[in-house]
Amino acid sequence: MTTIAKRWQEWASFALGLWLAVSPWVADYAGHPAATANAVFLGLGLALGSHFQAALDDCQGEWLNLAAGAWLIAAPFVLGFLGEMVPAATSVAVGSFVAILAGSALSVASQDVH
Of 49, 68, 64, 60, which is closest to residue 10 (Cα–Cα)? Predict the structure, then answer.
């Protein structure tokens, strides 16, 4: 039961990663280079990492997802695209969801240990 409960979070993170990777073109902010590069690289990394975590049943990668979520929340401030509403909102929203999903999966994993 615990594995199934954790896997939905990984597949949700996979879908969020794919969305993030294509969002510069779908949401029409590809003209902002920093936001586009951040979205594409982090989106592909998140999607690939989540896929391998689900396939290998590895909870250690959830810490990377948590870090990726935190970075996505901070990225508009750090990379200077806070003034661009769509890329900033996309980055913060996806980052928040990814961090929540990673925290949830880590919580399930810690319950499995006890």
Answer: 49
